[in-house]
Amino acid sequence: QDLLTPILERGKANAKLENRSWTEPTFWPEWTLVAIEPRFLVIAEIVANLLENAFKYANKDAEIGIFITSKGLCIFDDGKKITKFENEKIFQKGYRGSASSKKEGTGVGLFLARKLAKQIGGDLNLLENYMKNDDQELQAIKKKNIFYLELPIKELHE
User: Fewer CB within 10 A of the terminal residue: the chain, N end or C end?
Assistant: First the structure.
């Protein structure tokens, strides 16, 4: 929880400033309550990047938030749905989705976030790609754009 507290505070403050709906985790699995190995502190950077994207690209009335599952984190927005055409392309270096056409950016944020996730033994996906997974926690989340940061839970506390 200490890892995520500053990010949650920042998200809540951004939502308040922009007069948006904000959803915080209500479920804190055991893996979030114990200090993690220093090499996994990069999780905070990945989550911060995903939230920054949500605030930047989702329409102004879109709800934004975080869910925590037993195997990772979901950062979501209920803005305009990312198209099937773009749902893998947005992770390519330099690619900028249609929502970014009038916004500044380099197209490397999601590329780097996924790369960092894989470096620590996790992964980052747009959840729609992930629905072949029969994970009940993930299927219960009914939001338009859900980025799922799957984490190597067992290794976080070795």
Answer: C
